[in-house]
Specification:
Blueprint lengths: L1 H21 L38 E5 L4 E5 L7 E4 L10 E4 L2 E7 L5 E11 L2 E8 L15 E4 L1 H10 L5 E5 L1
Parallel strand pairs: 1-9, 7-8
Antiparallel strand pairs: 1-2, 2-3, 4-9, 5-6, 6-7
């Protein structure tokens, strides 16, 4: 059993190194884009994107609002952040500040679905939590009977997250 644990940790460490070796040194700036559509996620009116939550801190960061089911990619001061709806997983991180701990270009999600642009930042209830996009582009409600940690977004938003949230980037989770 200990051998399996050591092998698993070595594999995760190798994958984390591999992902960090191909990541840019600083978060890339992404152009403003219209929010993607999601059936169960709220969307702002077409005239103005949702405002970044006031209690989300300062500086370059990813803000994830549990209640709004929304993410903001907040870049340099004065720039309009990119924002988009997400589909939360069944396991939620606690509110607080985290750092991106690992990334994977393409893997199978905890729900058994192929995903891409995985950005991991927390662990809750023994489940790793992170952002990802299904390769089929879907954002269905997760099965409530399964403990999953994938916070899903559209593929286009996943591309933006991947470019923005590199290793050690700040993630702020708000209520």
């Amino acid at each position: 059993m200990a051998g399996l644990t050591v092998a698993a940790l070595a594999a995760v460490g190798f994958l984390g190194y591999q992902a960090s070796a191909t990541a840019p040194a600083a978060p890339a700036q992404t152009p403003q884009a219209a929010p993607s559509a999601a059936a169960a996620a709220p969307a702002p009116g077409p005239e103005k994107p949702a405002a970044v939550p006031a209690d989300s801190g300062t500086g370059v960061r990813v803000v994830y609002s549990l209640g709004q089911k929304r993410v903001w990619l907040v870049g340099e001061d004065g720039r309009e952040p990119r924002t988009f709806p997400v589909m939360p997983s069944t396991v939620h991180p606690k509110t607080g500040t985290y750092l991106v701990s690992s990334r994977s270009g393409a893997v199978t999600g905890s729900d058994g679905v192929p995903v891409e642009h995985v950005v991991r930042f927390a662990s809750a209830d023994g489940v790793v939590v992170g952002f990802s996009a299904r390769t089929d582009g879907g954002m269905p409600q997760p099965d409530p009977a399964k403990k999953t940690g994938g916070i899903r977004m559209s593929r286009a938003d996943g591309d933006a997250m991947w470019a923005f949230a590199t290793i050690n980037s700040k993630i702020v989770v708000v209520p």
